[in-house]
Amino acid sequence: MSTAFAFALVGVGLFALGLFALMVYVHLLRKIIAINVMGSGVFMILVALAKRSAEATDPIPHAMVITGIVVAVSATALALTLMLKLTAASGRARFTDD
Amino acid sequence: MQDAVTQFPWAIVLILLPLAASMIGFLLPRLAMTLGLITAVSLVLAVTGLGWQIHYIYDGAFQHAVGGWGAPLGIDLYADGLSLLMLTTTSLVGLGVSVYSVLYFERQQALRFWPIWLLLLAALNALFLSADIFNLYVTLELLGLAAVTLTALQGGKAALDGAMRYLLATLLGSLFYLLGVALLYHSYGTVDIALLSERVEATPAIWAALGLMGAGLLLKTALFPLHFWLPPAHASASAPVSAVLSALVIKAAFYILLRLWLVIFSPLGEGAASLLGLLGAAAVLWGSLQALRQTRLKLLIAYSTVAQIGYLFLAFPLAGAAAVSAWSAAAYLLLSHALAKSAMFLVAGNLLHFGGHDRIADLDRVVQRLPLTAGAFALAGVSIMGLPPSGGFIGKWMLLETALQQGRWDLVAVILLGGLLAAAYVFKVLGHALTEADVMHEPRTVPKIMEWSALLLAFAAVLLGFLAVPLLAWFDVSEVFVISGAGP
Amino acid sequence: MMHNKPLDNISDDYRPAAMVYLLSALAVMTVAALLAYVVLSLPPVAPGLTGHVAAQMGQSGVSNPVTAVLLNFRGYDTLLEMVVLLVALLGVWALGDVARHHETAPGPVLDTLARVLTPLLILVAAYLLWVGAHAPGGAFQAGSVLGAAGVLLLLTGWRPRIALIDLPLRLILIIGPAAFVAMAAITLLIEGQLLTYPVMQAGTLILILETMAMLSIGVTLAALFLGGQPRDIQNK
């Protein structure tokens, strides 16, 4: 199996790991980190499979991932601030009446 | 003058104008609200101009290669009857909500509201005009973040909790969608919808992409059983925000699902169509029953949204044999629901402003004291119930007809039962609104603008009942099957 | 009344149920297995869009393919993504004001580090911006480094006098996306097509856009780090 597919499988693993953590853990910070890990998994899949081309590496997935990273950073910033405000308002960093 | 209308890039205005207005409104907060109102009005004009162009100049569909590169290298903008429907819904509800919001928010919140609201409008327009699945991901994220922020704007534990649930759900949905995009790109070397529709074959990767993107988009459109995030978020947000969330934001995800379904995934669809129909039926029944049980008005309206979304998905199993009528029904239901549901949430906002609470049992002679507001709720209720004459009636009638023609008695039963349950919860609210409550509350006056905007939106929903033939021709959804001209 | 620690350790409050663990593990393993199968089923060699990109590189104005894609071929995505960054900032600002801050002197390590690193980071950012035209680099990379410089400064306890910089701050925050929107509008008026640069000027235009973007991204990232609207900025 070529390196491209090896890294793509790592990406699948990250995606699955993040999904597990998102479903299982209760603390909001862990959920936010889980989403980030899932995102990294998807980006890894995008970039790894770009190495399959015989000529130069395909730059389109790279550009997509750069865009994706910026979007992920923005979303994480908002999520963290929201979490802090919610914790300040309710005293605990978890969903209420869960 | 003629040339100015026909040649003007109305579609691009729909995207660039709210972006520019938002940024100027952020730079100079004093102008934010004025810019917002001007933009809201301009969007209605622009959408009309675009519709004119699509029908009389562009032969059914508008296409624009951004940067001049064209797919698959560049990004294409595309608008046909379906896009026009969504854009029109957005501009009409957008105008109503904008007018309502002029007096709804107090100063500090208003200055924060308008720039974000304009970005949400820009995101919706960009989404409905895009023909590139990765570009759709970016617009989905923009839409999601703007919507979450507006939900949290209200402040307070409930709104923050609802916003956090909403944010995590929307991010999860986006990631599933993005993984699907990755699989599609690496299978066919393009992210352009038109090109993908030509190249798609039934491979494991395509099935996975369908499953992933479907799951992500169903989560974002809050179809049962992935609807858990919607009631807390829609009920705890401020009234104009709730209106937008129910009327427009979840429809955006539905639009993408529909577009992908029709264009890319159609060769695969039979089993998936039945599944969607089943989930839709469950949504109608579950949502309506839950709505009936609620004691707070905004939660009742939120669960009503869960139910009404279900109707849209009933079109999927019916579309196999009678595509045009099934999708026309869904289109009409979508537009009517957007108008009626936004009116309902604005009514809830009025009642909250008036009495300081939204407990249904304590609605104290609202009909007598706020006749415009009560009238708005009644008209909106007519459309939600599917009574004639209203847009909701036309949509449900078309759906019923299609189901009867195909012998789908199960779907007929669901539609009729859903209508009865809707009548039950609408009349529950109206009943309490007519009678005296046990506890009296000190009323505050509701500004006339807020009452009129709710009433006009509801009136529009009913008006749709009379305009079925010309509107269905204007929003010609049969053209969805024809994507004119792929790139080089 | 309530404790001040916003983030607690794992107590009973946060412990997941055993059933949830099991079911989630099963579900996730199934998903992972299916995805692995799907990924491995993809063709081992696929050119993607390398051919298309290579063919049009000459018209793009830069020689680094990723920069060409980001700023030219798929520049519309970049425009929207700059707006996403802005909406996140608007969101963080809308959620509340930043906590009251008392300026304290940083310890010796942080003090020295900040003095040495900040100018260095700014130089590196400028270099990354410039080199992005023909090697890996560009607006986002430079903007991130600039943002890091900003965060480092904030960590030392420094805060700018908000009352003095309100309008300039807002201007820098929007200059990135605003430049893109302006470019989009101008090219629409002149060429009739959105974001279509004339080939001769493409390189220069891209550099201008990237510079604006870098400034916006850097300042936005630092502002996001603050976690709230800076006090004293009164919306007039």
Summarize the structure.
The complex is a heterotrimer of chains A (98), B (488) and C (236). Chain A is an all-alpha fold and 98 residues long.
Structural notes for this entry:
The complex is a heterotrimer of chains A (98), B (488) and C (236). By secondary structure, chain A is mainly α. Chain A has one domain: Helix Hairpins, CATH 1.10.287. Chain A is built from three helices and no strands. Chain A is elongated. Chain A starts with a helix and ends in an 8-residue tail after the last helix. By secondary structure, chain B is mainly alpha-helical. Chain B has two domains: 267 residues, no CATH class; 220 residues, no CATH class. The longest helix of chain B is centred in the C-terminal third of the chain and has 33 residues. The two termini of chain B are 34 Å apart. The C terminus of chain B is likely disordered. Chain C has one domain. Chain C is built from eight helices and no strands. In chain C, helix 2 packs across helix 3. Chains in contact: A-B, A-C, B-C.
Q: Helix share of residues of chain A?
A: over 70%
The CATH architecture of chain A would be: Orthogonal Bundle
Largest sheet of chain B: 2 strands, antiparallel
- What is the alpha-carbon Rg of chain B in Å? 21 Å
User: In total, how many domains does the architecture of chain B comprise?
Assistant: 2
CATH topology assignment of chain A: Helix Hairpins
Unreliable sequence segments of chain B: 481-488
Q: Count the domains of chain A.
A: 1
What amount of the residues of chain A lies in strands?
A: under 5%
- Number of beta-strand segments of chain A: 0
Give the number of helices of chain B. 20
Give the overall shape of chain A, derived from the CA principal axes: elongated
Give the helix proportion of chain B (percent range).
over 70%
Average the pLDDT over all residues of chain B and give the rounded result: 88
Number of helices of chain A: 3
**What is the strand arrangement across the widest sheet of chain B?**
1-2
First-last Cα distance of chain A: 44 Å
